[in-house]
Amino acid sequence: MVLTEDACNCIRFDRQRMATETYSSSGFFDSMLELRAKNKIYTAERKEANALPHRRRDLEAAIAIMQLSPFAARVHEVLDQHSAALPPISEQDDEDRVWRLAIHRMDLRRYTVLDKVAEDATGTKCNAAHGPERQYVRLALTDIEPDIREMTRESATEFEAMITSSNLMLWGFNVFKHENTATYDPMQWRQRLMQAQNVPAADSIDVRPDIDAGGPGFVAAVCARDHWDEMSDDEREWVVNLICDEVMREADTWNNYARGERN
Fold it and tell me: In terms of Cα–Cα distance, which of 36, 211, 10, 250 is closest to 106?
């Protein structure tokens, strides 16, 4: 059995892997790597592997999906083992509570079906009776312990900002490159601009990872390039100032590796 700490790190690292691969590029940096013949083999292998459908999900999603298969009992046994390996609740720190919440979130036994009405990916309310093509079931996580509720309440502001910034990063990056427009609708630019304007500065939220800190900057770049004439003077000023701030933010970084790194 994998140690609880190792399993927790695997879940965390795989989520970071999925986020990175979602908006990683295969442009100039890859072409530089491919100048050597053997690097072409490695790069081609990575591109092929990254394109596999299962890599668009993380381990948490995979574990949840496995519970809809004949392996459900084995998955439940492993989840119960990891729960039992945790210290008593009175002795747990925040890292233990985060892992406990992850186990709780992966365990489909902890969910209840609320009703048949849910929202699709575009935010439009729909009902299973409206047609056979799209059927949605809304699940709710139950029995969250008081200490975890308190922890999540204290970090709600930081978590909401992180999620918003991540969504802005994914939308801005894909729209800027004219990719995945079926998922990331370019016509949402006004909504994304308003969200970007309300994201706190990157240095005001310590828990925000660098991977999504550039979300508002990508939104600003899209708006400046594609919607300049549609913006107000105040919006143009904000967009220009943010783009300049993003350019200058690490302009004094002279580390060759950091300057050449893609993400």
Answer: 10
In a domain, 26, yes or no: yes
131 backbone φψ class: left, alpha, beta (φ>0; ψ -120 to 50): left
140's CB contacts (< 8 A; 6+ apart) are: 111, 112, 113, 114
| The predicted structure's pLDDT at residue 207 | 40
For residue 14, the enclosing domain spans 4-109
Domain contains 146: no
pTM over 0.70: no
Question: Tokens 């490695």 correspond to what residue?
Answer: 42
Stronger pLDDT, 143 or 90, i.e. the higher one? 90
Q: How many helices (H) and strands (E) does the chain have?
A: 12, 4
Cα–Cα distance, 95 to 8 (Å, whole number): 9
* Same domain for 244 and 173: yes
Whether residue 253 sits in one domain with residue 164: yes
